[in-house]
Amino acid sequence: MIRRRRFLHALAAGASGFALPASLVAQPRTKRVAVFVMYLGPDEGSKEAMKGTDGPLHAAWASLFANEGFRDGLDVKIVIHVARGRSNWEETLPKAAGEVARGNYDVVFVSNENLLRHLQKAAPDLPIVTNLDDPVRAGFARSLSEPGGNVTGTHGGVVEVNLKQIELLRRILPGEVSKIAWISFKPQLEVTWPAFAEAAKRAKVSVRQVLIDSSEFPTFPTLRRDFAALGREGCVGAQYGGAVDEDIATVAALALQHRIAVAYVGQDSDIKIEGLLFQYRAMAKGFRERHVAAMAKILRGQKPGTIPFEGPNEYVLRINMRTAERIGVKIPSDVQLMANELLR
Predict the structure, then answer these.
(1) What mean pLDDT is predicted for residues 205-214?
(2) Predicted TM-score of the model (pTM)
(3) Is 114 helix (H, G, I), strand (E, B) or coil?
(4) What are the structural domain ranges in the chain?
(5) Do domains 31-156+285-306 and 158-283+314-343 have the same CATH topology?
């Protein structure tokens, strides 16, 4: 009995002086990170296209995490999840969100509010980093400085941006602009419409909703009828949130045909398309780095509800002067001076 006690005592004392073999030391669990994005490419060959984007997308995120001290495959395991955007969203988005919810992740980046809503339903306590137009209005945060829930990230200051777009339409278009159109997709009624409706109310303009039916690719007969109605109703300005090439091309062509000035919300490169008049948008410079920084804080133990939402740090105005000429509007010189880019 004495010998056994001495042995145990010696083993305990020796533990402070000798390191155990690495194989016997408990290693920290590799944290799991998901990047949940929407793919808007064509349905035909979409699986191959999604695989084609997975490699570069994964490498880009791995590089950003490395800058925060997390090495993919060692400290973290980054997994890309892709939901098909050109599909029946009511079926495909909940299914994709369910797959992410079952992944046992420590933190997830979600690329847009539609995906976020489905993921929150599937995993209400999962830490999430995202980019939202208005986190408080959408119900994801108590305040921008103290979100208080399981979601943080960046926001777009969207009501103020919408107000500026309406102001620019009024500055550019002749006469009194009392009615404009809001052109988007049905799923955006829950996401981007509330902020635009608030901006229109503040600006005291009425709005006609024009909803694009994605099942009508590529001819969009309903959209064509709606544009004709806009002309009859004297609606000469619109805000449009583009999604894929087919609807962008169709809206641009119809805007030219009916001489409707379109404030475009979408990719920077699209504003060169004749038919889109101007793009005014808030920019979160380095926003992907901000998202990864927030995710790194969560991986180190901080709660997302204590991480403030970060807002835009740059605003950009691009005007397509070719479109202005074709629809017969003159861009005032002071508005031209405000622009970051004039496309001629």
Answers:
(1) 93
(2) 0.72
(3) helix
(4) 31-156+285-306, 158-283+314-343
(5) yes
Q: What interhelical angle do 46-67 and 287-299 show, nearest 10?
A: 70
Give the span between the Cα atoms of 1 and 53, in whole angstroms.
Answer: 67
Instruction: Report the C-alpha gap between 105 and 100 in whole angstroms.
Output: 8
pLDDT at 43: 56
What is the full DSSP assignment across 54-83?
HHHHHHHHHHHHHHTT--BTTTEEEEEEEE
- Asked whether the predicted pLDDT for residue 10 surpasses 60, the reply is no
Report the percent of the chain where pLDDT is more than 90: 65
pLDDT of residue 50: 52
CB 263 within 8 A of CB 280: yes
Question: What average pLDDT score do residues 102-122 get?
Answer: 95
pLDDT mean over 168-189: 92
Nearest partner of 280 among 340, 332, 326, judged by Cα: 340
Does domain 158-283+314-343 sit in CATH 3.40.50.2300?
A: yes
Distance CA 212, CA 103 (A): 34
Burial-class residue 106 by CB neighbours within 10 Å (0-12, 13-18, 19+).
middle
Query: Among 14, 288, 18, 55, which residue's Cα sits nearest to residue 153?
Result: 288
Mean predicted lDDT score pLDDT of the chain: 87
| Range 231-235 contact pairs with CB under 8 angstroms and sequence separation of 24 or more | 231/258, 231/259, 231/260, 233/179, 233/208, 234/179, 235/179, 235/180, 235/181, 235/208, 235/260
Q: Are 269 and 336 in contact (CB under 8 A)?
A: no
Q: How far apart are alpha carbons 250 and 79 in whole angstroms?
A: 35
Query: Within 13 A of 135's CA, how many CA atoms are on the CB side?
Result: 28
Helices (H), 151-259: 158-172, 188-191, 193-203, 221-232, 245-258
Q: Which positions ≥6 away from 124 have C-beta within 8 Å?
A: 150
Q: Fold for 31-156+285-306, please state it.
A: Rossmann fold (3.40.50)
The two tokens of residue 134 are: 């208005």
What is Dmax (Cα atoms) for the chain?
102
Categorize the per-residue pLDDT at 11 as very low, low, confident or very high, splitting at 50, 70 and 90: very low
Q: Is the dihedral of CA 216, 222, 228, 231 positive or negative?
A: negative
